[in-house]
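## retry 2 of 3
previous attempt timed out at serialization; input unchanged, resubmitting
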Amino acid sequence: MSQWAGSPVIFFTAVLIIVVWLLTGKYFDYSDTWQLWVNTGTTVITFLMVFVIQHTQNRESNAIQLKLDELIRATEGAHTVLLDIEEMSEKELLEIQNRYHDLAAKARLRLRQGHSDTGSPDVKLH
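## retry succeeded, writing output
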């Protein structure tokens, strides 16, 4: 549905409908009914498209998450506890985030001291 709705054919069809609607305005004397047709149509289409967009976004988000999970799983030394990090509580996420912020701060300090910031330092996740 999202592929279809986002296609150039549908876009140009929508443009054509608006042009036809505008051209028929004079014929219908720009009446309230004439305006109501386009307002109702666009409202219904917008309402439906919200669900199409949300479905597409959820699907793409899940696919990206699975790809990231596979990278974590396949990387030696990676913390596999992060595979389902999106399921953790806000408190747990904040604790892990703080550990990574600390790691970044230490790396910046090392850089300022003329050392390298590369490598895979251990991060304690418990």
